[in-house]
Amino acid sequence: MHRKRIIILGSTGSIGQSAIAVMRKQIKDLKIVALSAHTNEEMLVEQAQEFDVETVALSGREPDSEEITHTGPEGLLKMIEETEADLVLNGISGSSGLLPSIAALTSGKDLALANKETIVMAGPLIKKIAADNKRVIIPVDSEHSAIFHLMRKVEKEDLAEIILTASGGAFRDAGLEELQYVTVKQALVHPTWSMGVKITIDCATMANKGLELIETNYLFDIPPEKIKVVVHPQSYVHSLIRTTEGSLYAQISRPDMRIPIQNAFTYPDLYESYMKHFDLMGKTLEFHEPDMKKYPMLEIAFRALEQKGSYPLAYNAANEVAVEAFVKGRIAFLDVPKVVDSILQNGWSRSPESIEEVQDIHKRVIREAGSTLKQYQG
Ligand SMILES: NC(=O)c1ccc[n+]([C@@H]2O[C@H](COP(=O)([O-])OP(=O)(O)OC[C@H]3O[C@@H](n4cnc5c(N)ncnc54)[C@H](OP(=O)(O)O)[C@@H]3O)[C@@H](O)[C@H]2O)c1
Q1: How confident is the model at residue 191 (pLDDT cuts 50, 70, 90)?
Q2: What is the pTM of this model?
Q3: CB of residue 93 inside a 6 A radius of ligand 1
Q4: Beta carbon of 92 within 6 Å of any ligand 1 atom
Q5: Of 84, 118, 139, which closes a domain?
Q6: What is the number of other CB atoms lying within 10 angstroms of the CB of residue 144?
Q7: Is the pLDDT of residue 27 over 80?
Q8: What's the rounded Cα separation, in Å, for the pair 8 and 293?
Q9: Strands (E) located in 321-374
Q10: Given 121, 139, 157, which residue is the final one in a domain?
């Protein structure tokens, strides 16, 4: 029987290590054929040895060991294109995930997509590349995985609304005035999920939900007015859909990325879970309206989506620059939305028509963000 051959990109990160944990359970129909990391060579080599993987890319620095077969960003793309595989899991963080996603699709692999930036930066173009190459994009982001699997049971014309759930991040219970002096360390304490640095800060500002709002619009062709965001502190409900006659359908499970990763690996089938099932008994599920004053990044994302053109792309790039500046202690937490909002005033109405144009606009935002940042640095 043909085993599904899987490439794991970003295997040393939070998503990557969850994917490795799924594979450790030795689902017999799956096999890892290639792995990648950026700088963490030690963990990468350990993973390659554990799973007997011969094709290994290190994209961010010169390797020390002979196990590394591909180096640099170009080597990473070559590895994706040349390795015979059925599915690529993209667990790379940030905008660097875009070209690897394209390399996967154009070389005939399905794409299990955790790297939401791929869709936020170039959603319509990526969907066209997938369609032209007759490939499937299987969302791994827990909310989009939930919607993707719920939508398999509902006709598109029966869909009235998508409800994205948000944990509220590190400062869910803090007042607006308390946010003024919060530190990076405090912003990195997520109440329910354990994830990489960038996405954890994005949860604290709710930029993560802003990116997911854009991702939802592009992936499922749903207009912004039919997408709602609710704060759900327990993170058990990963999203909901409402059908036209008013029923709500939810996907509920523990907050554990191994679940959407396994479902993406085994798609279109659902395999029995080796994890303990979620027990409803004694659980409370709460839902609240998000406070747009406390989470301006969410309001800016709704605006960017309505403005269309390159606004979503600019939102992502500006946020990357602002988050990096916050993490490095150059700007305050509340400056992040100010920097992004200021950059979005610059006019981004043109829709990119090619991936090269996407990259040019992304670079332009980063250049402009450099000077905007100076106004906020202490
Ligand atoms: N973590 C979650 O639970 C979660 C949930 C939903 C969606 N996502 C999305 O999944 C993606 C990954 O998130 P994460 O939390 O797993 O991030 P992470 O823990 O920071 O891991 C990032 C991975 O990408 C590699 N990497 C970093 N920069 C790279 C570059 N320029 N080129 C190639 N590889 C690079 C890293 O390698 P090194 O280790 O060598 O630096 C690492 O393997 C993000 O887009 C995030 O929004 C994550």
Answers
A1: confident
A2: 0.96
A3: yes
A4: yes
A5: 139
A6: 26
A7: no
A8: 39
A9: none
A10: 139
